[in-house]
Amino acid sequence: MTRPKTEPRSPAVALLAALLVVASQTVFGLDDPFDRLDENLTFGAAGDLLRARLSGTLDVEGYDVSPEEQGLIFKDGNTFINPRLSLFLDVQAGPVLYAFAQLRADNGFDPGEGGAHVRADEYVLRLTPWGDGRLNLQVGKFATVVGNWTPRHGSWENPFITAPLPYEDLTGIWVTEGARSVTQLLAWAGVLPKPDMGNAYIDRYRSMPIIWGPSYASGASVFGDVGRLYYAVEVKNASLSSPPEEWAPSAVQWQNSTFSGRVAFVPNEMWTVGFSLSQGPYLEPAASAGLPPGRGLDRYVEDVAGQDVGFAWHHFEAWAEAFEARFAIPGVGNADTQAYYVEGKFKFTPQFFGSLRWNQQFFSSLPLPQGGTAAWGRNTWRVDAGPAYRITPHIQVKLQYSVERQDADLGAWSHLLAVQLTCRF
Predict the structure, then answer these.
(1) pTM above 0.85, yes or no
(2) How far apart are the first and last CA of the chain?
(3) Which of 69, 100, 163, 225 is deepest in the core (most CB within 10 A)?
(4) What are phi and psi of 150, to 5 degrees?
(5) How would residue 289 be classed by pLDDT, with cut points 50, 70 and 90?
(6) How many Å apart are CA 336 and CA 390, to the nearest integer?
(7) How far, in Å, CA of 212 to CA of 247, rounded?
(8) What is the CA angle 64-74-278, rounded to 5?
(9) What pLDDT, on the 0 to 100 scale, is given for residue 419?
């Protein structure tokens, strides 16, 4: 599995200036046209028993990234532009049936990929037998139930432009091949020198994080609310760490399913506390041909345990998540990693808010053939900060600056400057 790489683009600084000019020219007089558009994109039939609504967002992002790799950004040049059109279709048939679909047109699921792509990222059919929300059943392709970031990962809801570290920090675990030794795993992670083997050790398109963004894998789920308790269970065709190429039902199917779930308690309007679990094979089906005899895909398993907290009080909101993940590698050992982030958002005015996020990830040690031990990945910390301004109820501008440090290499500093203009309709 390889991904096309992007060509160098125009500087992000120029994009920032252009976006600010566009935004300054659209402050006045745009609410009414957007409101009329919303009305024109809402449909009803059979006495409104059948209702449908089409909505969407248009995002234009500019990135200026240091040469050192950072997160799920795939690029050749340091600066590039990333446009994205997302269309959402909601259909409600009476109180029992609901359908949802998300169609995206962009340069690839993650920033910096090359070429034009049109994809159906989500499509869901949901059955709600009772009106009190205690039970919902859905099938299709949809975001994972794990954690508390996924419900706010959209460009309008996310205070930042990028995802938290657990959702995008690439590790030394490959989706295409099971590691044969600790030395090989450390080379894949960049902890040991990478030998020249036809770029096999430097292809970061094979690497995986703990959770790949919102993880739009295919499957079925059951979820609902019982008093102050929320529950959700899902079975998917791919692990949380799997890349977007594995999410479609035709790509992996359900030979080796992943099971995930989350339980959350809401004691009051201020607090939400959640716990998540997930288990499933992390290698793609094509990797089975290269595995040692007697070792199937079902032995290369990713286990994830997560804890999350949400808090809201007046103009302040905060979220935190911690994940403990284990990648089982037969003949090598258990590659364990822990990652967490703490994120805060403060609304200074009804239109202007600022956000700050602290992220860290740690890697366990594995025994070396020559004796001693070594961490199988680069311990990392990252800080994200940025303001956002909602020019109108339909137009928003965000700015983000991130600094990252990897402890395994004293020179492994990286930065990211990004700007995003979002128009929703």
Answers:
(1) yes
(2) 35
(3) 163
(4) -55, -40
(5) confident
(6) 41
(7) 11
(8) 120
(9) 96
- Token digits for 237? 């065709």
Instruction: Check residue 408 and give its pLDDT.
Output: 59
Q: How many CB atoms lie within 10 A of CB 348?
A: 11
Task: Output the six-digit token pair for 215.
Answer: 């993880």
> Over the chain, what is the mean pLDDT?
88
Q: What six digits make up the tokens of 234?
A: 């899902």
Return d(Cα 164, Cα 360) in angstroms, integer.
10
- pLDDT for 387 beyond 70: yes
Amino acid at 298: D
Residue whose C-alpha is closest to residue 186's, from 366, 59, 2: 366
Q: Phi and psi (nearest 5°) for 22?
A: -60, -45
Number of CB atoms found within 10 A of residue 26's CB = 15
Phi/psi class of residue 191: alpha, beta or left (left: φ > 0; alpha: ψ in -120 to 50)?
Answer: alpha
Distance of CA 390 to the CA centre of its chain: 23
Q: CA nearest 273: which of 285, 264, 283?
A: 264
pLDDT category, 347, cuts 50, 70, 90?
Answer: very high
* Cα–Cα distance for residue pair 345/385, rounded to 1 Å: 10
Q: Which two tokens stand for residue 220?
A: 């079925």
pLDDT, tens only, 214-245: 999 999 999 999 999 999 999 999 999 999 99
Q: How many CB atoms lie within 10 A of CB 413?
A: 12
How far apart CA 410 and CA 413 sit, in angstroms, is 8
Q: 120: which 2 tokens?
A: 């159906």
Question: Nearest Cα to 242, choosing from 148, 175, 288, 326?
Answer: 175
pLDDT at 206 (0 to 100)? 86
Q: 176 pairs with which residues across the strands?
A: none
Q: What is the mean pLDDT of residues 38-66?
A: 87
Q: Are 42 and 140 in contact (CB under 8 A)?
A: no
Per-residue pLDDT of 118-151, as tens digits, reads 999 999 999 999 988 899 999 999 999 999 999 9
Structural domains of the chain, with CATH: 12-48+57-82+156-217+241-424 (2.40.160)
Instruction: Give the separation between CA 203 and CA 243, rounded to whole angstroms.
Output: 14
Give the Cα separation of 182 and 364 in Å (integer).
12
Q: From CA 260, how far away is CA 242, in angstroms rounded? A: 14
| Cβ atoms of residues 56 and 88 within 8 Å | yes
pLDDT tens digits, one per residue of 200-222: 555 667 899 999 999 999 999 99
Type and span of the H or E element at 36: helix 31-40
